[in-house]
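Researcher: I'd like a structural prediction for the single chain below. Treat it as a standalone chain; there are no partners to consider.
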Amino acid sequence: MGSVTVRINGIDYNLKGKDDEEYLNYIANYVDEKVKEILSKNNKLSSVAATVLAAINISDELFKVNNDYNDLLGNFESLQKENDKLKQSLEDVERKEDEEKEEYVSMMQAIEDLKLEKLSLEEKNSSLLEVLNSKNNELEELKNVQLDEGQEEDLSEQITELESAAKKLLEENNSLKLVNREMKFELQSSKYKVMDLEKKYLDSQIKLATEIKKREPYLKVKDNK
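Model: Treating it as a single chain, here is the predicted structure.
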């Protein structure tokens, strides 16, 4: 516990406190300056009156400082809450951005798969057309062949088989064409979905940048504290 003798307005006072002598002297000098300031403005005041007025002025300063501190504390808490909201909003934007990135990658992979499948179907369709043309050529050749009655019956059966095979190949070819058209439509739809995802991704980037910009002043306040 510190103990020191101080002089305030010409009167000695013995001060004791938990603080050191330097601090007690600092407080006493401050009070002494306040009292002398009041007396300098009105030398008719008594020492007691000047001391009372100094105490009132010092109390006024204290209350104003406390009010300012409470206001600052309230503002800081409000800023802290706003900062937490912005932080949560930023996390939501980043999470949505990650989800859209994953969806975009998945969609691009699906498009590549569709392209490969479309290419495979086109190759298969081309092969079927070659086989179909070959069967039709064989059929025409057989129809033009001059045969006796016994061979004609066998030829008739071969023609029937070839016509059946050609019909089947034609049906398969038409089916492949239908699938190919459906795949083209699906591929086009996927491209539109990708374009939509790219727009959403760009929008999320803009929103993310906006949230970061809004958050910067609150971060600075927090760092300064």
